[in-house]
Amino acid sequence: MPHRDPSDAEVDAAFADLVAQFDREFDDHRQLPPPGPTPQAPPPQAPPPSGSDAADGPEVIEGVVHESGWRVHHAPDDEDLDAVDDGMDIPPLPPMRLSPIAMAGITLILGAGVITVLLVLGVRLPSWTGWVGFLAVMGGTALLLSRLPRHRDDDTDDGARV
């Protein structure tokens, strides 16, 4: 049986069904009150005497009721975080080490940049410094390009992980 493309009406009906299903799934979330303190908080009360069970009720701070219960999240102290060892210690990155040849190439290019900045600022330099700057840029660029790898590993992995 040959495959036929759905008509525009069928596509629209399928899309409307998806939207209606989405609305049904998330209706409960839309009807929940926004999170935050209770809008009509009772006035603050004096703390109960020590040893009484009344301390287990909601805590009132500056007229706002802060419920305490099994769903309340208390941020851990720094001591608690230090005590946790999850085995996920990430070692620091090793220091970047450039070869002496790469450092020479970078120095040539930066030296040419210094000469250019001095000339732009109007510092009078001998005429040969322009040639030195030009040759430094060309030599530094050639030096750095010659240090690039000629071939890459034939790796078909694009690096994406799911």
Automatic annotation (TrEMBL):
Composition bias type Basic and acidic residues, residue spans: 22-31, 64-76
Residues annotated as transmembrane: 101-122, 128-145
Keyword Phosphoprotein: no
Keyword Transmembrane: yes
Name of the protein this chain belongs to: DUF308 domain-containing protein
Comp. bias (Pro residues): 32-50
Top-level taxonomy: Bacteria, Bacillati, Actinomycetota, Actinomycetes, Propionibacteriales
Region (Disordered): 20-88
Biased segments, Acidic residues type: 77-88
Keywords: Membrane, Transmembrane, Transmembrane helix
Protein origin, superkingdom: Bacteria
